[in-house]
Amino acid sequence: MARYKRNQNIMDSITPPDKTKISELSGGFVDSKRVHKETGIDDFTNQVRADFHEAAPIKVPERIEGTEKEKDELDKYLEEQERQKQLREKTKAKGVKVGKSYVAGWLVKKIVIIAVVLLVLFITVVPPICTNSQEGSTQNVNVFEKQSYSQLKEDLLSDWSVYNIDNMSSEKAANYRVCTVGINMGNYSPFKIVADGFSIVTVDPTYKDTIVAVRVPGGKIELSPFKVETLTVEVLVNVHELSSEQLDEAMTSLVLKTSGMWKKAGPLPIPCIPAFVFVSDALEYIKQ
Question: How do residues 181-192 score in pLDDT, each as one tens digit?
Fold first, then answer.
């Protein structure tokens, strides 16, 4: 049987590919230069490289600034806040804590200074405290027993505090009474108090023609520091035509004050405000 000898150069059913058709396919690989030119692919790894020449630019929004006026107001507000903060810190640093708040240091200093000044005034200028005691009487004495009428007038002008010398209108001893007033005087300062005595400030106008003069029998008043003493003040009254009731009214209407008073602080005398005494109506003066 004859054998069929196959032709080695002939492919029965296989035909070579058509290059023209392959080249027309998208992504063909025949003409690598054309593929690179059209698609930008220079390799066959399926990676696409970006072309920044054709990318659209990205617009970054610009920051919109406020007006100059708005910026100035904001700056002023921030500066004021900072100033207030610094002031609070300064006050807190220099202040004194009272409860839950702080009191400024200058205010504390001012209060202390005022308190010291008041204390100094109190112990130097403020007068002693004077009040009526329960002592008060009417003495029927002969004022002309040891001296004449004219001599008594001279004695009154030199040793008494005269209210009205013209009220010495009678030369009869029976027309005069010496009324006493007890006064508690308290010296609450560290200085010695010295005074010439007491004088009459006022009296009921109805009896202004009856009061003659007033004095402290012991002469000058000397009161040691932090001491209370009871003094006796004598008032010479012309009781002519006065009843016991009128005498009592005249005496209890009196207002007395210290005269020539000062505080002794070493060699330097310190003038002192006069102390006033209202004669108490609890006292009773009877014409004897």
Answer: 999 999 988 889
Tokens found for residue 117? 């000044």
Q: Can you state the percent helix, strand and coil of the chain, rounding each to 5?
A: 30, 25, 40
Q: Do 160 and 199 meet the contact criterion of CB atoms below 8 Å apart? A: no
d(CA 10, CA 13): 9
Unique residue bearing structure tokens 């004088």: 199
Burial 258-286 (b: 16+ CB within 10 A, else e): beebbbeeeeeeeebebbebebeeebebe
What are the beta bridge partners of residue 139? 178
DSSP assignment of 140-190: ---TTSSS-HHHHHHHHHHHSEES-GGG-----GGGEEEEEEEEEEEE-SS
What CA–CA distance (Å, rounded) separates 146 from 169? Answer: 19
Token digits of residue 233: 């003040």
And the tokens for 162? 């005269």
Own/partner contacts of 95-98, CB < 8 Å, gap of 24 or more, are none
DSSP letter at 248?
Answer: H
Encode 29-44: b = buried (16+ Cβ within 10 Å), e = exposed: eeeeeebeeeeebeee
Please tell me the pTM assigned to this model: 0.61
The mean pLDDT value for 148-163 works out to 94
Distance CA 102, CA 105 (A): 9
Question: Three-state DSSP class for 271?
Answer: strand
